[in-house]
Amino acid sequence: MKNHHIYLILRPLLLVLALALTVTAQEIPKAKPEDVGMSSPRLQTLSATLDGYVKNERLAGGVALVLRRGKVAYLHAFGERDRESKSAMKPDAIFRIASQSKALTSVAIMMLQEEGKLTIGDPVSKFIPEFANSTVAVPKDGGGYDIVKAKRQITLRDLLTHTSGASYGGGPARDKWQEAKVNSFYFSDKDEPVCETIRRMASLPMDAHPGERYIYGYSTDILGCVVERASGMTFNAFLQQKIFDPLGMKDTSFYLPMNKLDRLATVYSAKDGKIERAPNEGTIQSQGHYVNGPRKSFSGGAGLLSTASDYARFLQMLLNGGQLDGKRILSRKSVELMTTDHMRSINFGREGQGFGLGFSVVKDVGAYGAPSSIGEYGWGGAYHSTYWVDPKEQLVVVYMTQLLPTGGVDDYAKLRAGIYGAIVD
């Protein structure tokens, strides 16, 4: 009985210790660069290059993370998270990832397809009836536009490939989009659920007929509403329960928990060759409403916050064919479908690349004109974050900064050259 009494006293402590060990076990293992076919001196040169952008006041700071063969080969937190308070950038800094949210939303749709809740060939109107009678704004010679009925209904595949005709409200009928207050990727200031915004969007004229043109815009935000309707869960709850928790993405969310205020990276803007702190509120080029906003709208196209390590876990899951640490999120065939070019005769607009179900895809390295491999897939975010996965090289790259506008800084090209230049196997 005495031993049992001691166990009851110690049981809470043992549970906490077990949970801590579980979390530690889930961390991506680290490796010496040479053990995964990379050069430490060459990666040190990359670090010096990134540090130089801070020294020259082109960037405040950032985090660069490289996984190779499933292990952390390179992690460099540089500069400052907040220049005004002289707070150093740390590896666990939290960033606004903007359009990097799109990959997570696209995965959610593919999960629902595997669950039998939808197929990507379904019309959007099956879940959002207001899209049953979509229209298109057709420019007229001499100015203005006519509004015509869409040739067919928009499908989920159209949304996944950005061929739905939905822009960010800057097309021929931009006046109607502005009047409806739907003309920016920024949703965190909206005091309404995302599906209310999407329902209003359905009545607005699109920029092109479904399936005819690649037009970057609200397609993935529409998919976020589809996730809610098909799953019966709020979008944030679906992502939390189905993706973030299983993958151990403990710092990924739509809005910042108050106990993590000291980890959110500050947004800066390029001006006259230097950078300055962006305003607190008012536009997309601001610190945003991720802390003090209404916290009601969950933008699948651009609304998430995350860390380099969280996002790397998500990408490693995809590189592994849909699973990580024994947790399967997708089947290998779904990942293959997502990372295959779906553009066919549609012009994607980038040399050497096509577009899949949520990702750009490299098809021709020579036409692309930068170090890469055929089959590489990735994307980025408006606040100057980017990522890519190179299956041939078993490579995952996550690069987080907060700069909008960028002023033409060339760090992406230097980052890519430095990482591929460090591969020595």
Mean pLDDT: 93
Radius of gyration: 22 Å
CATH class categorisation of the largest domain: Alpha Beta
Q: Give the end-to-end Cα distance, rounded to a whole number of Å.
A: 61 Å
Shape estimate: globular
Oligomeric state of shown chains: single chain
Structural class: alpha+beta
Describe it.
The chain has 425 residues and is of the alpha+beta class. The chain has 2 domains: 33-100 and 236-421, Beta-lactamase, CATH 3.40.710; 105-233, DD-peptidase/beta-lactamase superfamily (Beta-lactamase, 3-Layer(aba) Sandwich), CATH 3.40.710.10. Helices cover 32% and strands 17% of the residues. It contains 12 helices and 16 strands. The strands form 5 sheets. Strands 3-2-1-16-15-14-13-12 form an 8-stranded antiparallel β-sheet, with helices on both faces.
